[in-house]
Amino acid sequence: MADIRVKICGLRSLADMDAVVAARAAYAGFVFFPKSPRNLTLDQARALVLASPPGLAKVALTVDADDAALDALMDAVPLDMLQLHGHESAARVAYVRARYGLPVMKAIGVADASDLAGLTDYALAADQILIDAKPPKGADLPGGNGLSFDWRLLVGRKWLRPWMLAGGLTPDNVADAIRLTGARQVDVSSGVESAPGVKDPAKIAAFVEAAL
Ligand SMILES: O=C(O)c1ccccc1N[C@@H]1O[C@H](COP(=O)(O)O)[C@@H](O)[C@H]1O
């Protein structure tokens, strides 16, 4: 069995958490972005995190959050990692990492090769890199749109940091994505839902099974 680590993002209920634990995913993601159908309050997230087993890494996804918002998040929710999914600069990533002492994963939206040009600066600032599809112009969400990109852009790339592949992954395509890109970690949100923001336990199980 290949040692692939799976992140299921956008959990909203104890049933979601149970499905993620049963499927043996490595990471559980919680979204803090009001425009998202997966958005959680701090109290909701705290309750979910406190109900989760210790071996599961709890990741908070924020979008261009300021210090006050991150301070409130850190005070309320015990976390293992921060996922910065906005337009944060490499300097901001390094600052957040130092301020909170938590591993930081920076998301990079990719549509073509030019989007990978600034990767080295981000890799030096972050603990992990998340490669996601770039959202369409005018999209409400910078991620979680169920869109993929041309995975061939990543073939043969040398990585300075651990990285995770995201964007339009599903139980049906994740094995191909892993084979083509060499990803050791994958992240999914829409692809394991029955409707926006509604996780499907059977799809979560099928996704992790296909990835492993
Ligand atoms: O899931 C969301 O609602 C979301 C909102 C804002 C930024 C990112 C979001 N999700 C992340 O997007 C990618 C890809 O998601 P999908 O599988 O294509 O739906 C993933 O990293 C999610 O963590």
From TrEMBL:
It catalyses: N-(5-phospho-beta-D-ribosyl)anthranilate = 1-(2-carboxyphenylamino)-1-deoxy-D-ribulose 5-phosphate. Its EC number is 5.3.1.24. PANTHER family: N-(5'-PHOSPHORIBOSYL)ANTHRANILATE ISOMERASE. Pathway: Amino-acid biosynthesis; L-tryptophan biosynthesis; L-tryptophan from chorismate: step 3/5. The keyword Amino-acid biosynthesis applies. One of its GO terms (biological process) is L-tryptophan biosynthetic process. It comes from Pseudorhodobacter antarcticus. This is N-(5'-phosphoribosyl)anthranilate isomerase. The keyword Cytoplasm does not apply. NCBIfam families: PRK01222.1-1 (NF002295). It is an enzyme of class 5 (isomerase). Residues 6-209 form the N-(5'phosphoribosyl) anthranilate isomerase (PRAI) domain. Keywords: Amino-acid biosynthesis, Aromatic amino acid biosynthesis, Isomerase, Tryptophan biosynthesis. Belongs to the TrpF family. GO terms for molecular function: phosphoribosylanthranilate isomerase activity. HAMAP family: PRAI (MF_00135). It holds the Pfam family PRAI.
